[in-house]
């Protein structure tokens, strides 16, 4: 079988909608029961304030206060954070199979995700996918967010890698364009992407 990985290359994965799938209807329904609000729509306050939350500008309490329009108690905040982490925890089995293959080949694996700091800390402690990655980078911990070129420069510096020696896999076209402008190899990931074929090619 032809190897997927190439020597000297870093494979840099996004998390949401690449490692993970989109939240399921039951997940959004659980948030609606807790908040009394429908939050799945792109125009909802869940999404309107999300970039600032991912970038570390807002604490969890500040974010959910903005989403709900009213202060949240410590008890409600814990419930909301648990529900939010759960809905993004569903893993894409095809991506996980590719990760297992790459890991078995000894590939250099890293992850770069826009994610709140406390959620990323939870996942690193609890999630099975974390063991695949030699390096992990999260916007909430870095205070920078994709597609800001600074976050890609930071990752390249940390990896000690030339841009052409990194394959970046992400679902967001803005992130793909920003990384490609710096010289990274890219795979624009979508529902029909055959990642195994893309990497082998």
Automatic annotation (TrEMBL):
Protein name: HAD family phosphatase
Gene3D superfamilies: HAD superfamily/HAD-like (3.40.50.1000)
Domain of life: Bacteria
InterPro entries to which the protein is assigned, alphabetical: HAD-like_sf, HAD-SF_hydro_IA, HAD_sf
Source organism phylogeny: Bacteria, Bacillati, Actinomycetota, Actinomycetes, Micrococcales
Matches recorded under Pfam families: Hydrolase
């Amino acid at each position: 079988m032809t190897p997927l990985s190439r020597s000297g290359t870093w494979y840099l994965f996004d998390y949401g909608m690449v490692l993970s799938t989109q939240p399921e209807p039951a997940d959004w329904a659980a948030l609606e029961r807790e908040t009394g609000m429908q939050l799945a729509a792109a125009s909802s306050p869940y999404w309107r304030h999300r970039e600032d939350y991912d970038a570390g500008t807002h604490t969890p309490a500040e974010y959910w206060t903005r989403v709900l329009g009213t202060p949240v108690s410590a008890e409600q905040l814990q419930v909301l954070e648990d529900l939010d982490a759960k809905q993004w925890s569903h893993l894409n089995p095809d991506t996980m199979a590719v990760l297992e293959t790459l890991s078995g080949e000894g590939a250099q694996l890293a992850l770069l995700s826009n994610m709140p700091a406390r959620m990323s800390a939870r996942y690193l402690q609890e999630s099975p996918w974390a063991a695949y990655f030699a390096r992990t980078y999260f916007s909430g911990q870095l205070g920078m967010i994709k597609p800001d070129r600074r976050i890609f420069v930071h990752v390249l510096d940390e990896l000690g890698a030339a841009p052409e020696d990194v394959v970046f896999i992400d679902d967001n076209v803005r992130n793909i364009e920003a990384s490609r402008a710096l010289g990274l190899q890219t795979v624009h990931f979508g529902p029909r992407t055959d990642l195994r074929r893309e990497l082998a090619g």
